[in-house]
Design a protein that fits this description.
With about 210 residues, the chain is mainly beta. The chain has one domain (about 5-205). It contains two helices and 15 strands. The protein has a 15-stranded mixed beta sheet that branches. It is globular, with a radius of gyration of 16 Å.
Length: about 210
């Protein structure tokens, strides 16, 4: 197994309401699951390949809960990456070179019957974990933005966190209000749904919370 490690900020959203039941071992609000996430590598490497600055997105859909499988997945990798970096990110994001069940990427890939062709497109990604804002534009095929959940009473920002100390995706996530449109192999039309912004610290053995990665 090729050793790898990555750390960076991930933003993603799905079609569930703001309190996504899947984070609490429940079933998705509307029976199915569809969404996307985008990840920026702030530091990391894959078998000696430097991954700093790489941005990758994944669009996904399942007809029911993720654990029932039969899903589909498509990766999109920023076109400013090298061929070596693209290969590395495909390996990681498709659950390869990873211990069984080690990351959410492993789960998403394993639960997908259809893996669409990886796209190489310009990804413009801005995210602020503390401010709970994000914006993503992927070369005309995906547009997503997020901001704080707003109070229905006075419109004031409402801050909510989810903590999962032993989660395979994140330890702590800021929950946001997200809107996403996608016109790739998997179509998305989400407005005011669940979104999360979180620090990702993963290795080939799974999450590396509270550890330094190269």
């Amino acid at each position: 197994m090729i050793e790898w490690n990555m750390e960076g900020i991930q933003y993603g959203s799905c079609n569930c309401d703001h309190a996504c039941p899947c984070q609490f071992e429940g079933l998705p609000n509307y029976g199915n699951c569809q969404g996307f996430d985008v990840f920026r590598v702030d530091k990391g490497e894959f078998g000696g390949v430097d991954l700093k600055g790489v941005v990758v997105a994944a669009v996904f859909a399942w007809p029911g809960p993720i654990f029932e499988g039969k899903g589909e997945l498509q990766l999109i990798i920023d076109d400013r990456t090298s061929s070596e970096q693209r290969h590395a990110m495909e390996q990681v994001m498709l659950g390869k070179e990873t211990v069984e069940g080690g990351t959410h990427w492993w789960v998403f890939s394993t639960m997908s019957d259809t893996i669409h062709e990886t796209l190489v497109k310009r990804i413009d990604y801005e995210v602020d974990l503390d401010a709970r804002t994000a914006h993503v534009n992927i070369d005309g095929i995906l547009e997503s933005s997020a901001e704080s959940i707003r109070s229905p009473v006075d419109g004031a920002p409402h801050r909510v966190k989810i903590q999962i100390p032993h989660g395979i995706e994140f330890e702590t996530a800021e929950i946001v209000d997200a809107t996403t449109k996608c016109d790739a192999a998997i179509k998305l039309d989400l407005d005011g749904t669940y979104g999360q912004i979180c620090l990702i610290q993963h290795t080939h053995e799974g999450p590396a919370y509270n550890k330094q990665v190269a």
